[in-house]
Amino acid sequence: MTTLPAPDRAAEAQLAAALARCAAGERAAMRVIYDIEAGRMVGVARRILRRQDLAEEAVQDAFMRMWRAARSFDPARGSARTWLYAILRNSAISILRDEGRFGSDEEFSEDIAPATENALARLPETSALRRCLEQLDAQRRTVVVLAYVHGLSHCELAGKLGVPLGTVKSWVRRSLISLQECMG
Amino acid sequence: MTPDRDERTQASEYVLGLLEGEAQMEAERRLASDASFAREVERWRMRFAEFDDATEPHPAGEALWQRIETATASGTPQRAAQPSRWMRLWSDIAVLRTATVAASLAVVLLAVGLGVAIRQARLQPVMVAVLVDGNRAGAVVHAFADGRVVLLPLTSIAVPSGRTLQVWTLPSRERGPVSVGLMDRARTLELELKDLPRPGPDQLFEITLEPAGGSPTGRPTGPILFKGNTAQTL
Asked: How far is residue A142's CA from residue A27's CA, in Å, rounded to a whole number?
């Protein structure tokens, strides 16, 4: 497993401890998690859902799932933080893909090249993810970044890039294989 | 054991959120049962987490916390981790399926439980929508042949002071959501659809939490508490 820098280790320990208290039914521990992570969670959900109200709905849903499932969190299997953000991404992407939702006027409409570069530019200079993504061809980089950061599906990526679905799928696969080799 | 290339690709596409339908279910089953795959998923999550760490936080105020607190007020965390629970956690599809089963069950229960009310009205609804939140059924909407549309609550709903429950429907995508009723608490309510076409099959109804007096914008602004689509009765 990747080793975390010291400040992250402290935050991770705090989160894992709060989750254990949630599992014991201690509601105050949920507030601890809210105070540490909710702002960033709203930010992550907003990148996917574009709207503050939907982002807040995703965060609320994620907290409900986290509260209900806290006992199934197993620190031996992974970090508390990735667990929490995996739940959040599931909530946000479910809302995004839910076709019964009102309105589609908020869908992703930015130009793809600047959106990709903006997401990359936010990563620290020292980031291995950034370095490895920058080694990919522009379009191959774009599919991975937009899928993760903005929650775009294969179909949406194909539409945005104006290429067939099969091409997008193969770009994604090859990009991921290159990333894996680069990041180790 | 070293994961093979297919396994890595499946794990990475799962983490990106690109798997759908059966492929997503398969990945979730595997996540629950295959330790090597679960490690691969965790590795990819850690790799991409840098994007989350680099995201600018947005204000998450007291109002959001209040909603979370209200929503989690009932019930305590579920009992210890069984593989099935772990799997369910990761499985949006499974949750949706549960919701569907719960909704069907609610329809059956309602058919029994509301028999009396229906007989009194000497009318049978032509359309029924069960409004759910995850796997919890919150209310049912009955549309009758004479044009009346009635909402019947199935559970009490916590409404903080200064807030109200607002019922919406989506007669068409072009028209967008239309408010059809306000209530201070979950109660039986005749909905106002007189100015709208009769509800058709697969028409969305939902209940949101709004400021007292109803949404100031005329569109839903608050969290969706329960929602569901109509289905024609036999």
From this structure: 41
pLDDT at position A7: 60
Distance separating alpha carbons of residues A55 and A42, to the nearest angstrom: 6
- Prediction pTM value: 0.62
DSSP state for residue A26 in the 8-state scheme: -
- Find the closest chain A residue to B20 by CA distance: A153
Q: How far is CA B70 from the centre of its chain?
A: 16
> A148 vs B48: CB contact, 8 Å cut-off?
yes
A143 and A69 co-located in one domain: no
- Rounded-to-integer distance, Cα B54 and Cα B191, Å: 46
Question: Are A72 and B69 an interchain contact pair (Cβ–Cβ within 8 Å)?
Answer: no
| Number of domains making up chain A | 2
pLDDT for B120 equals 44
Strands (E), chain A: none
Percent of the residues in chain A that have a pLDDT greater than 70, as a whole number: 91
Contact present, B30 and A4 (Cβ < 8 Å): no
CATH number for position A91:
1.10.1740.10
Question: What does the alpha-carbon distance between residue B148 and residue B124 come to, in Å, rounded to a whole number?
Answer: 11
Q: Which residue intervals of B54-129 are DSSP H helices?
A: 62-71, 83-90, 92-113, 115-121
**pLDDT computed for residue A112 by the predictor:** 83
Average pLDDT over residues B15-40: 90
Contact A56 B20 (CB under 8 A): no
**Closest Cβ–Cβ partner in B5, B76, B168 for A25:** B76
Length of chain A measured in residues: 184
Query: How far is Cα A98 from Cα B100, in angstroms, rounded to an integer?
Result: 14
A106 domain residue, yes or no: no
Q: How far apart are the first and last CA of chain A?
A: 11
Question: Average pLDDT over chain A, rounded to whole?
Answer: 88
Residue among B5, B47, B220 whose CB faces A183 most closely: B47
**Domain boundary at A97, A125, A153, which?**
A97
* CATH code where residue A159 lies: 1.10.10.10
Q: Are residues A14 and A74 in the same domain?
A: yes
**Two tokens at B180?**
């059809």
What DSSP line would sit under A114-141, residue for residue?
HHHHHHHHHS-TT-HHHHHHHTS-HHHH
What is the largest distance, in Å, between two alpha-carbon atoms of chain A? 51
CA distance B191 to B198: 12
Residue numbers of the domain that contains A151: 112-183
